[in-house]
Amino acid sequence: MEVKYKCGLGDYQEAFVTPEAKPLGRKMLVAVLGGVMVILGILVLTVLGLSQSAAAITIMALWILLLSVCRFVVRPLWIGRDFRKHPNFSREQRLVIDEEGVHYESEVGQSDKEWRAYSRYRETTNLFILHLGPRLIEVVPKRAFAGPQVDEFRQLLQQKLPCK
């Protein structure tokens, strides 16, 4: 099958913002470190003269503010800046997909990758994300496929790669 597409900032955001399952150990580490920081913050504010309840409310409000700023201000700015640093991501791509692999072509070059070059794939609402390694991906938007081609590509991915 052959498809053509051009990715944009929305595709870049979806590829890098869509959450992946984190290992339990990492979740526990984040929870413990967050709890320690909350306790230390409350301790410092009580030493400075606030009551424990006022210190707890202050620390929780600061955490909510910090997380909100990171999610709704810092992350979109960082992703937009990073997108502009990768102009090849938004170039028009032509893909030929077959039993052997994926063959890419754009105005700046071409490549042929066998299926074994990919470690896994992920599917989001609008994208197929092919992983070449832990931090190296290729994005194929679902809108590039005509009708039943989406299901055909999904079946080929399921045959050739593990899904995570």
Question: Which class do the helix and strand fractions yield?
Answer: alpha+beta
What number of domains? 2
- The CATH H-level superfamily of the largest domain is Pleckstrin-homology domain (PH domain)/Phosphotyrosine-binding domain (PTB)
| Strand line-up across the major sheet | 1-2-3-4
- Overall mean confidence score, pLDDT: 92
Q: Sheet bearing the most strands, described? A: 4 strands, antiparallel
DSSP strand tally: 7
What is the CATH-assigned architecture of the largest domain? Roll
Give unreliable regions as ranges: none
Strand content: 15-25%
The number of helical segments is 4
Fold and architecture overview:
- With 164 residues, the chain is of the alpha+beta class.
- It folds into two domains: 83 residues, Roll (PH-domain like), CATH 2.30.29; 71 residues, no CATH class.
- Helix content is 48%, strand content 23%.
- The protein is built from four helices and seven strands.
- Helix 1 crosses helix 3 and helix 2 packs across helix 3.
- The longest helix is centred in the middle third of the chain and has 33 residues.
